[in-house]
Amino acid sequence: MKNGKFLTGVYPGTFDPVTKGHLHLIQRASKMVDRLIIGVAVNSRKGPLFSFDERMEMVKTDIKNMNEKGCVIEVHGFDTLLVDFAQEEKASCIFRGLRAVSDFEYEFQLTGMNAKLDPELETVFLMASDKWQFVSASFVKEISSLGGNVDEFVTPHVAEMLSSKFSD
After folding, report:
1. Phi/psi at 97 (nearest 5 deg)?
2. Residue 91: inside a domain, yes or no?
3. Sign of torsion, CA 58 60 62 65?
4. How many domains is the chain partitioned into structurally?
5. Choosing a second label site near 136 at 20 to 30 A (CA), which of 14, 23, 74, 149?
6. Domain for residue 141, yes or no?
7. pTM of the shown model
């Protein structure tokens, strides 16, 4: 409990695939709330490489293998508006990661819209550490598709799933 109140946070994403950068932010966010929900977005309009079930499995496996957790971490899928999902989970905040100024512009607009839809829901921005600022799921997929080594950017489980995906 923080300040006498049980706090739940949501960290949403497509996680196509989950990267070590995502995991680092999850670890940090877990120290700020009592319960952290990782919201895996169905988001089929983005045309993900991995199916929804594969992405859920990747995130669940990586969370299970995570050494340091500051709170209970759950992985749930959602295909609704983020604010509706957060309300359903009784979350008081949404965590969003920022890598660069270009991320900020999009996130700023998204936060403004979310505030209009639910003024009680706070958005907490976490800056990516310098080690992970350049890592994106898109880059990881591209490197892997061209036969490059992505071991530095994803867990062994995710690297194996990528390798399998591109060897077909």
Report:
1. -95, 145
2. yes
3. negative
4. 1
5. 74
6. no
7. 0.92
